[in-house]
Amino acid sequence: MNGAEALIQTLHDCGVEVCFANPGTSEMQLVAAIDGQHGMRAVLALFEGVVTGAADGYGRMADKPAATLLHLGPGLGNGLANLHNARRAMSPVINLVGDHATYHLHYDAPLTSDAAGVARPMSDFVRISKSNRDLPHAGAEAFVAAQGYPGRIATVIVPADHAWDEGAGAVAPIAAPPAPQAPEAAVAEAAAALKAGTRTALFLGGRALREGALHAAGRVAAATGAKLICETFAARIQRGAGRVAVERLPYFGEMAAEFIKDYDTIIFAGAEPPVSFFAYPGKPSWLSPDGARLVRLATPREDPQAALAALADALGAPAEPAGVATPGTPPVEPGPLNPANLAAVVAKLLPENAIVSDESATLGGACFMFSAGSKRHDWLALTGGAIGQGLPLAVGCAVACPDRKVVALQADGSGMYTVQALWTMAREKLDVTTIILNNSSYAILNIELRRVGVANPGPKALSMLDLSNPSLDWVALAKGMGVPGVRVTTSEGLYDALSEALAAKGPRLIEAMFV
Amino acid sequence: MNGAEALIQTLHDCGVEVCFANPGTSEMQLVAAIDGQHGMRAVLALFEGVVTGAADGYGRMADKPAATLLHLGPGLGNGLANLHNARRAMSPVINLVGDHATYHLHYDAPLTSDAAGVARPMSDFVRISKSNRDLPHAGAEAFVAAQGYPGRIATVIVPADHAWDEGAGAVAPIAAPPAPQAPEAAVAEAAAALKAGTRTALFLGGRALREGALHAAGRVAAATGAKLICETFAARIQRGAGRVAVERLPYFGEMAAEFIKDYDTIIFAGAEPPVSFFAYPGKPSWLSPDGARLVRLATPREDPQAALAALADALGAPAEPAGVATPGTPPVEPGPLNPANLAAVVAKLLPENAIVSDESATLGGACFMFSAGSKRHDWLALTGGAIGQGLPLAVGCAVACPDRKVVALQADGSGMYTVQALWTMAREKLDVTTIILNNSSYAILNIELRRVGVANPGPKALSMLDLSNPSLDWVALAKGMGVPGVRVTTSEGLYDALSEALAAKGPRLIEAMFV
């Protein structure tokens, strides 16, 4: 077999089942190899940011990597922003980046670039294939690297001649090491701190927000009265009625600092101490209260469930957790859409086992709060702040979990970055309901402009934050890519449209107007 | 003034008049500074690939840099592909990339990344500001770097605190050095080679394709009978009736090699000897005929017009050039659209002084050929092969040349990468007529798949090259972004729609169906 076939066979043997792809000429051998590999699904996207964002969503839900297929340095460049988000989510992802044949590189043909250089800033592991026979080894190593707990971004540069040269063979998968465990001393320190403290909190992130870890955290809360708080932008929270609930740290630094200012003891599991998302003149970056005792129970790269369970046991905690969410959501107020009645509708209708891709920005904040008592679901946030994640993430979730409904809460401005995701939803008939929150504005920037000290912005500055000239018509955009859409302006209209979309299978778009 | 104000004032004093922008929180001070800077236009785009592609188009037409405004490493990442194209076009571009405040970086907040690392693969010059007072110096240096003949990509990383700290001042512009001249020995060698050769050619690229250089090349042709050939993907060719015409080297390597195989002498001005765009198994990368005498008269970074004029004089060439294109275009055949009648309509209707942004791929090849005798125009190609250039480039051309009609010949697959450009066209009321060539396919890849040796592609491989499921509806996409559109299926329909669009001012989209 040629190198491409050996690579794809190896990845398949490792357990890679999906390749999100936007290939070009230099990846044609890889396309052919995927073509011949039963058991590896190929999902085409019309832009690389969709490819990498989908791989992120897939990784968050499947807890194993999908492959991406990208076209040289520029194609990888187009995927960097969502690789940044995936890296911040600690998602497992394997990028296969085609490059010129090794002997062609020195001719400096127009598409020549430093593909590895493009990869490095957003990858945890970069491996350039050395030969057709080395290529499958690179793939096996990338698979292990991608599974570095809980997940890493592994990028393999695939020169075209290594892909097409015959004489390669698949190599055996390498076993990934188990999840690192938190040191026992950390458990003991956390237990002692919780006993000594008067106002205590567990600050949870990453894998600590999965159901089992939350159950253990709830037991700790039952034993100690500790408050359960989660990071602002979590990769995946398992929540809803019957699960242990957590409160989310607010986004703006001063509100976040206020939120945790009274705790004398904070135990961290799956998260580092929170910092301000951006810096602002005269405002602190570090948010934890001065003098508080901060204990790292489990870093984001250590198994938090085992650590939390050990902590609960060390505290003699009861078997039943505290803070289990009870069923129920706020009533829906009729009338023109606002953040509250939007949230009430979404919370009420969210179906069992839904997956929420949340890039709702300023308008969607209440959705998270109101859905604490919704049916059980997974909530996936914008982890790295690089906007344009939400729709691609929804694609990946739907591919990973074909039997679950995906709901994308998508702000208009950020949705435009990777709007091409709608086409892949239509092509693959993915069960995604997208709710576009249309306020014709980069609303967050209107706030931020003032927060960084610009007191009297002029018309040119304000125009840079304004999307109303012309207004986007998302129903038309969706139609252009084959997704049925409808525009709503009231909570009643949203209720009906969302009910209908959730009852059906396949992609739908609802444009919720806030103007 | 603060650092941002000092930077923007400095760039303005250097002559920068336009900033293509997609800002975020860390760039709010720069937005405010641009707001206060009369004489600097701010053009918002909804995606960074539009920003950088527009700066490329502006640079090609204005021969001076626009600024871009980008949001940290991920925002720059989204702009890399078109920076790659701009770099290959040798366009002058200044990127201003906001970054976290220096003191905030070590907290590793979610958007933290190695912005300079992201910049380097696609920049000729990367400068990280050292302080608020250093920031304007960085800007002045970037302006000089961007003007490194004929143009370079200069990137300045702007930490937020350097932007907002008070106590900075604008600095004086630095004079850019003049264009380097080709050595006299090269002129003498070229003259001797042309006299000695029997079948000779001038191979022209870059600035050698401007009117003055072409005139000189035409004089050389008049004196020697040398054929005039241009690179396949040129940044900007000044052409049409009354100008010296050049024939374009074919795209596929074997056709290109065939095209030049009989020349015993090839003189290069503004271009390096051509190489195959991609490598293919068993096919050569180097295209020049074995044993031919290859003379580099002027490299792409030396003034080709002066060198060609000196060469013409050294040969005692007549004042009048050979090979001047005569007016006239092929007749338009009626009926369903095909590459020939598309080209005939475009060639016939192209208005005086039009600017053509050509990302027409497989369908548009004839457009270039048929328009040799059209009214005078500029023709801008996809220089770096990173698709998604065409629509952003048209934006930049229209901003640089508000009194000229811009025609974007845009293939469907590549158009989708940066489809957001349509919104900026609508917002700025840019005089761009976009013709989408819709064949519902990555048609080039259907050819390339076989060329790299995949003899019998299966359905999964073919589906990766197919855009028909679902078909894109570009009229709906354009409507979604505020651009009036119409779909045509015949040459008569195209003729009418294009006539109407060219007679009007402002953005229009024509979806030309080839299926």
Mind explaining what this structure looks like?
Two copies of one chain form a homodimer. The first copy, chain A, has 515 residues and is of the alpha/beta class. Chain A has three domains: 3-164, Rossmann fold (3-Layer(aba) Sandwich); 184-314, Rossmann fold (3-Layer(aba) Sandwich), CATH 3.40.50; 339-513, Rossmann fold (3-Layer(aba) Sandwich), CATH 3.40.50. Chain A is built from 20 helices and 18 strands. A seven-stranded mixed sheet of chain A has the order 9-14-13-15-16-18-17, sandwiched between helices. In chain A, helix 9 runs parallel beside helix 11 (304-314). The radius of gyration of chain A is 23 Å and the shape is globular. Chain A starts with a helix and ends with a strand. The relative contact order of chain A is 0.12.
Oligomerization state: homodimer
Determine the CATH topology of the largest domain in chain A: Rossmann fold
Q: How would a textbook summarize the main sheet of chain A?
A: 7 strands, mixed
Tell me which CATH architecture of the largest domain in chain A applies here: 3-Layer(aba) Sandwich
Helicity of chain A, in percent?
25-40%
Extended strand count of chain A: 18
- Shape call of chain A: globular
- What is the largest interface, and how many residues per chain? A-B, 99 and 99 residues
Structural class of chain A: alpha/beta
Rg over CA atoms of chain A:
23 Å
Query: What is the strand content of chain A?
Result: 15-25%
> Biggest sheet of chain A, strands in spatial order?
9-14-13-15-16-18-17
By DSSP (H or I, 4+ residues per run), the number of helices of chain A equals 20
State mean pLDDT of chain A (0 to 100 scale). Answer: 96
**Fourth-level CATH superfamily of the largest domain in chain A:** Thiamin diphosphate (ThDP)-binding fold, Pyr/PP domains
Cα separation of the termini of chain A: 59 Å
Identify low-pLDDT runs of chain A.
none
